[in-house]
UniProtKB/TrEMBL annotation, chain B:
Pfam families: Fer4_7. Signal peptide: none annotated. It comes from Desulfosporosinus nitroreducens. The keyword Lipid metabolism does not apply. Transmembrane segments: none annotated. This is 4Fe-4S binding protein.
UniProtKB/TrEMBL annotation, chain C:
Coiled coil: none annotated. InterPro entries: 2Fe-2S-bd_N, 2Fe-2S_ferredoxin-like_sf, 2Fe2S_fd_BS. Keywords: Oxidoreductase. The keyword Flavoprotein does not apply. SUPFAM superfamilies: 2Fe-2S ferredoxin-like. The keyword Signal does not apply. This is (2Fe-2S)-binding protein. It comes from Desulfosporosinus nitroreducens.
Length: 367, 167, 101
């Protein structure tokens, strides 16, 4: 019989939300175990070269990878936090046992509380030859380039002008790669306009109301045909352009990685503003399965700054429910909630706010 | 227009520009931040009290041009790289434009570079007179370019990879 | 192509090691993934699909998508985007669904 690992709080995912949850809970005295699929925690933060927005409370002005290192250090310095890297959570069982695979072993963990902070996965779009080598998800380009220091090619077509498309384009330019164009099917740029402006003024065109009609190449990408879209999103005939590129990068959105929540029988709801199916949860991020919390992109795709605050909120709430820091927890929770409302108060946060309202509305259609 | 291309319009720029008189007096920050996003490092960077604290973190920054001395700390702190310093008092015919820079190679003092507009269009070949490193942690360089007076509010970038012209 | 200089990041690479791709000796660095080493060597086609025999390359690079399955030291279906490179490793294009020897 394999030994079962006991822990007070198990956190699945060592990205910005998971690590913030770990140190918040551990600071109140709870013992925490973090499972991280990758060899190094930090999630996507460690691949970000740009300075983050937000305020000092979310480390604004520091670059993403610097914030990642800081969160890793905070967890490393806390004796209450244990991080298992190269370990993938496999399932949450009815009796509360969580299984995982790590170092080629099947592991069993028996936590008192669980925080799911699994993040999101990239979406795909359909076009002829979208399976050719040389077509990458934006995350893959970031991993190759900013973790391994390898550029994916010489000339790139970026698809999507949301924050990820804009940021990865900028990162490619920093690595000396040419961007042929950034195309976006929507009539307006979805990402922050300051990102768009710094790319545009370096000479890279951002083409809104444009889409890819096909990729071509024998064994790998040699080019792409793009075209204009009219007001009803239909291709404008005669507007085709042939771009000679050896890389096509897809940054067409993210979906919450909610398999574990589905499996744990959390009540789920499809909320388009939150980018997919998300678990129904209360203000303190506890789902309908008691003792199971969510934080970060898995609870609705948003920015890393809010993922960190959500992580902190879930960590405090889980620790408090175990009897830790009952005197200060309410104050810390209120602070985190205030930070979240502040981050979401502007026009950029309205979509998330609508999504959360839709999610909390008990009368809606339930999956 | 800005939200379709990323290029601020002349009208957008006018809203954040100081008067001709103020420009002539000496260096001043131009904060080209036109979208309300949750972000406030510029307010904390300014030691002159020229960038007022924000009531709501999503507010656009408000700069008091008369309090601004063009020190450039906000330029190197702005996460959006949206702040520039313009000094129209540099000479009778020329101004200095300071721009943030995070690419390689970093130009050296007295190098000639191709200056670009907000749309990435060539405006001429200009001299770099100073290069400030952001330091170990910040890493954003500030490039000082000498440009003709009438281009001081137009030059906002340089062509990457040295003097290289578009086809 | 490897990045030698970067305006923001520093790349601390491990020791240079040799490995084999379909019998051909290639160089990579200890600690990086097999996919990274193959990419740096200019290898983009990692295999072909079972039914249509269409070329397959790296897509997600974080172990999600299974586009990069290869045969490594005789073991099939290895996600080379997350498997670390080791000295002398034999990385082969996988034929079919692979079977354990």
């Amino acid at each position: 019989m394999p030994k079962v690992k006991e822990t007070e709080i198990l956190i699945v995912g060592g990205g910005p939300a998971g690590l913030s949850a770990a140190s918040a809970a551990a600071n109140l005295g709870a013992s925490v175990l973090v499972l991280e699929r990758d060899g190094k925690p930090g999630g996507q933060l460690i691949k970000q070269t740009h300075k983050f927005f937000g305020s000092k409370k979310q480390y604004a002005g520091d670059r993403g990878y610097q914030i990642g290192d800081l969160l890793i250090e905070q967890c490393g310095n806390n004796p209450n936090v244990e991080v298992w890297t190269d370990t993938t959570a496999l399932g949450i069982y009815e009796d509360g046992v969580v299984t995982a695979e790590g170092q080629a072993k099947h592991l069993k963990i028996n936590p008192k509380k669980i925080i799911v902070a699994t993040g999101a996965s990239e979406k795909m779009i359909a076009f002829p030859n979208n399976d050719l080598p040389g077509i990458y998800g934006a995350g893959a380009v970031q991993t190759l380039m900013n973790v391994h220091g390898i550029v994916p090619g010489k000339r790139v077509l970026m698809i999507g002008a949301g924050n990820i498309g804009l940021i990865v384009s900028y990162q490619l330019m920093q690595a000396g790669v040419e961007i042929a164009a950034i195309i976006e099917a929507a009539p307006t740029i979805g990402g922050y306009l300051v990102h768009a402006s710094k790319i545009q003024r370096a000479g890279v065109p951002i083409l809104t109301s444009h889409t890819i009609t096909e990729a071509y190449g024998d064994e790998s990408v040699a080019g792409a045909i793009i075209c204009k879209l009219d007001e009803s999103w239909q291709p404008v005939s005669g507007s085709e352009q042939d771009l000679k590129v050896d890389v096509i990068c897809l940054a067409v959105g993210l979906s919450p990685l909610t398999e574990l929540c589905f499996q744990a029988d959390c009540q789920m709801k499809y909320v388009s503003e939150l980018s997919g199916h998300v678990p129904v949860r209360n203000e303190y991020l506890e789902t309908t399965r008691p003792g199971l919390y969510v934080a970060g992109d898995v609870s609705g795709v948003e920015e890393a700054s809010s993922a960190m605050v959500e992580g902190r909120l879930a960590g405090i709430s889980a620790a408090c429910s175990l009897g830790y820091g009952e005197d200060i927890a309410p104050k810390l929770q209120a602070e985190a909630l205030a930070e979240l409302s502040e981050l979401r108060a502007g026009p950029a946060g309205q979509k998330t706010l609508r999504g959360i309202m839709n999610l909390m509305d008990k009368g809606g259609a339930v999956c | 227009m800005l939200n379709k291309t990323g290029i601020p319009t002349a009208e957008d720029v006018k809203k954040v520009s100081p008067s001709e008189d103020r420009l002539k007096k000496g260096p001043v920050a131009i904060i080209e931040c036109f979208q309300e996003i949750p972000c406030n490092p510029c307010t904390e960077a300014c030691k002159q009290g020229a960038i007022q604290p924000m009531e709501d973190i999503n507010n656009l920054p408000k700069l008091d041009f008369d309090k601004c001395n063009g020190c450039g700390v906000c330029l190197s702190r702005c996460p959006g790289l949206a702040i520039f310093i313009v000094d129209a008092s540099y000479s009778d015919t020329e101004a200095v434009v300071r721009i943030p820079f995070e690419y390689l190679p970093v130009p050296q003092v007295s190098d000639k570079v191709v200056g670009l507009s907000r749309a990435g269009e060539e405006l001429g070949v200009f001299e770099v007179i100073k290069v400030q490193s952001g330091g170990q942690k910040n890493k954003t360089y500030t490039l000082w370019l000498v440009v003709p007076n009438d281009l001081a509010m137009d030059v906002r970038s340089i062509r990457l990879g040295g003097v290289r012209h578009a086809n | 192509m490897r990045i030698t200089e970067h305006p923001i990041l520093e790349f601390l690479r491990g020791e240079e090691i040799s490995f084999f791709f379909n019998g051909q000796e290639l160089k990579g660095f200890e600690g990086e993934t097999i996919a990274a080493a193959l990419h740096a060597a200019g290898v983009r086609v990692l295999g072909h699909s079972h039914a249509m025999h269409r070329p397959r390359g790296l897509f997600c690079a974080i172990g999600n998508c299974s586009s990069c399955l290869m045969d490594v030291d005789g073991e099939p279906n290895i996600r080379i985007c997350v498997e670390k490179l080791k000295p002398g490793m034999r990385v082969e294009t996988q034929q079919g669904k692979g079977c354990l020897r």
